[in-house]
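Human: Respectfully, please carefully check these tokens:
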Amino acid sequence: MVVYSIIVHYNTSEAVCRLIDSMRLIQGVTHKAIIVDNQSGKEEYNALKLYLSSLERNDVELIQAQKNGGFGFGVNRGIDHICSIEEQIENIYIHVINSDTLIIDGSYLLKSIKFLENDKTVGLVGPKVFMEDGKTVQNTILPITSLKTVISFKKKYSNINLSENARNNIKVGCLNGVCFIMPLSVFKEVGGFCEDYFMYNEEQDLCYNITKASYSIFFLPYKSILHFGAYQTDEQLDWRFMYKRRNQVLFIKKYQSKLKALFLASVFAISSIPKFLSKKNKKTLSWSLFVKSLIKAAL
């Protein structure tokens, strides 16, 4: 079997170089890495090329996408490349991992693949992810997007970290896309990532379709990586704030109904007014653009 790590790169050359270097810790599997550059700036792209050319390794490849189509788009281009160079995909696993991470225990890939090999009804697994301090566990177990889970998230879900104290494998509805492992054949079967999301909530769409195809999803409590971006919040009124909410509306429209999507868009628009009026939040996003993106997603 072969495991391909897929890393989407966009102007984060220093972080990707650090991640690639940490992949020396991976053990027990035949491993290769595909870095998909989503049209980064020339300086960042060249810095990454220079670093890779200095390595005495032939297990890392850099490809460049034709545009910056977002995270799911980048992963899909990586999958297309793997399928173009591999004659068969039955014994290939993909390891999707964020660029702002660092591997701290290289055994989790082998453990995860053994779990998948032992149960062919499992479509995707994800390990235990630590924040930058190396002690705090990021909550990577997510509820599938619905009106109920979105509206009541802060009250019912935000303070529940099922990942933190897990000692056994947990069957879940969805896992954060920061790091996961799955058979390439399953990824292809469910159609890969939906590229409409650009960034955020695309893992919800993928997990929904994996479950719909009668596969299960498991959180495995194996120590794996540090995630340096885990501390970022959505309180800054920027493109992240917009896409997180816009994509939840898009998911509701896609899998439930336009009426529910319009309702959620209205809730987000109204509840966000105090944030836009507050002087505490740095405003790099206009309220009108935010509302337009919500309505467009709903319709």
In short: The two ends are 44 Å apart (CA to CA).
